[in-house]
């Protein structure tokens, strides 16, 4: 049996190593399941990664739906009501869909996410969707990846999130979260 050459071994290693983007954080094959506030990859395969100027240009065209996916907690009391925080600034025109960016949302949240996206896009999987959260937050990366898995083809990810938007001095508005099971 022939022995593999060093070049063949290196080539095989490259084929089975996850891509590392310019920032040095590898893009995982699945979803980030914990430690959501940590450095993120520079991009997401299948999505367009935007900086603040790119987000402004996208939103000025008027066809994108900005979606904040910042997480909300539930009470541990029976019935698990949502614990609503003080109002938070959002990119104007945003929807706030909490918890859809967790690595493994419960089945109800995952189904709710698919339903809300379908309703907001009118079933148009080519409609532009912009996902954001905070800087160094994997929840927006996860949500954008989940939208891609649902067949959406015009997915944008804004890794700087509200931190980048506010740092640029851009306008904000307070938007209450849309919550599964809450009319």
Automatic annotation (TrEMBL):
<feature type="signal peptide">
    <location>
        <begin position="1"/>
        <end position="22"/>
    </location>
</feature>
<dbReference type="InterPro" id="IPR001763">
    <property type="entry name" value="Rhodanese-like_dom"/>
</dbReference>
<protein>
    <submittedName>
        <fullName>PQQ-dependent catabolism-associated CXXCW motif protein</fullName>
    </submittedName>
</protein>
<keyword id="KW-0732">Signal</keyword>
<dbReference type="InterPro" id="IPR036873">
    <property type="entry name" value="Rhodanese-like_dom_sf"/>
</dbReference>
<feature type="domain" description="Rhodanese">
    <location>
        <begin position="126"/>
        <end position="174"/>
    </location>
</feature>
<dbReference type="InterPro" id="IPR022376">
    <property type="entry name" value="PQQ_CXXCW"/>
</dbReference>
């Amino acid at each position: 049996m022939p022995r593999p050459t060093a070049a063949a071994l290196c080539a095989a290693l490259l084929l089975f190593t996850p891509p590392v983007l310019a920032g040095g954080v590898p893009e995982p094959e699945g979803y980030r399941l914990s430690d959501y506030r940590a450095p993120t990859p520079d991009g997401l395969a299948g999505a367009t990664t935007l900086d603040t100027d790119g987000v402004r240009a996208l939103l000025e065209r008027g066809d994108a739906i900005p979606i904040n996916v910042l997480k909300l907690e539930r009470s541990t009391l029976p019935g698990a009501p949502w614990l609503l925080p003080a109002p938070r600034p959002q990119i104007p025109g945003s929807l706030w869909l909490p918890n859809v960016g967790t690595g493994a949302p419960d089945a109800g949240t995952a189904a709710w996410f698919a339903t809300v996206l379908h309703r907001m896009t009118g079933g148009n999987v080519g409609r532009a969707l912009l996902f954001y959260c905070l800087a160094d937050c994997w929840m927006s990366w996860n949500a954008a990846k989940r939208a891609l898995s649902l067949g959406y083809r015009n997915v944008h990810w804004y890794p700087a999130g509200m931190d980048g938007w506010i740092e640029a001095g851009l306008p904000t508005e307070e938007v209450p979260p849309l919550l599964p099971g809450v009319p």
